[in-house]
Design goal:
mainly alpha
Length: 255
């Protein structure tokens, strides 16, 4: 890390600035994330949707959507494992720090590249396909920008620290700080000396989570469980003649 980066890192962590960034902001973001979803579900239940644009264009969507969704899934799983599982636990099951580091860098980089590639395709599709662009709101544009910044900073931090640089063990600093937030014993000093790209990635993620309930990203917390218990939809034909073939089971005509 260069001298200018060290100066910036220390500047944002000293005194009141560190308390605001690494204590107050996480709790504000968490509160808005939870309460915002409650408010959205109560007062905008019909807006709780992805507003799918598949009817307008499918070729690019068929490529970009799986790339992005599978990539971001592995990115989230990697973050959950890296932030919530203490380093001592992986050591206890026989996974050395070197093995964990290599696995995290390889899988994380592949997942990050897939996520960025998928996001680029989706943004390109929204910008170049007329009907899709017309259906894109300002909220969508802000959401895509926030996603791109957060994902880009995370991938840049991984590449700069663990591929180009000599490596950085975030499980000794960022992970304990993250867990301390949920222990209600926040320790901003743990963020002292953390490379600036990791800091910016963490801050952008906090802002993204605060905006999350008010965007189409709410669909990630939705599972169509009602489909398993809802009754069948009954179709009635207006034709007097049913045809020459016997209807399949469940499709018999209701008289």
């Amino acid at each position: 890390m260069t001298a200018s980066q060290q100066h910036l890192t220390l500047a944002v962590e000293s005194g009141t600035g560190g308390i605001l960034l690494w204590v107050a902001l996480p709790y504000v973001s968490l509160a808005v994330f939870v309460l915002g979803h409650v408010w959205r579900y109560r007062y905008d239940k019909f807006g709780w949707t992805t507003r799918s644009s598949q009817l307008y264009e499918r070729r690019l969507l068929r490529i970009g959507s799986p790339l992005f969704h599978f990539g971001i899934l592995f990115v989230l799983l990697g973050h959950i494992g890296g932030l919530l599982i203490p380093e001592s636990w992986t050591h206890a099951v026989g996974i050395s720090e070197h093995t964990y580091h290599v696995l995290a860098v390889v899988v994380g980089t592949i997942a990050g590249v897939c996520t960025v590639g998928g996001l680029v395709i989706l943004i390109y599709r929204r910008r170049t396909v007329g009907p899709v662009f017309s259906a894109t709101t300002r909220n969508d544009k802000a959401m895509y920008l926030s996603l791109a910044v957060t994902i880009g900073l995370g991938l840049a931090a991984t590449v700069a620290a663990n591929i180009v640089g000599g490596g950085y063990n975030y499980r000794e600093t960022i992970s304990p700080w993250f867990r301390s937030i949920f222990y209600l014993q926040p320790d901003p000093d743990l963020m002292t000396g953390v490379p600036v790209l990791f800091q910016l990635h963490a801050l952008s993620a906090l802002l993204l989570f605060a905006a999350w309930p008010f965007t189409r990203l709410v669909h990630m917390l939705t599972a169509p469980l009602g489909y398993l218990t809802r009754p069948y939809i009954v179709y009635r034909s207006r034709d007097t003649q049913l045809g020459s073939r016997a209807p399949h089971r469940g499709w018999e005509r209701i008289r």
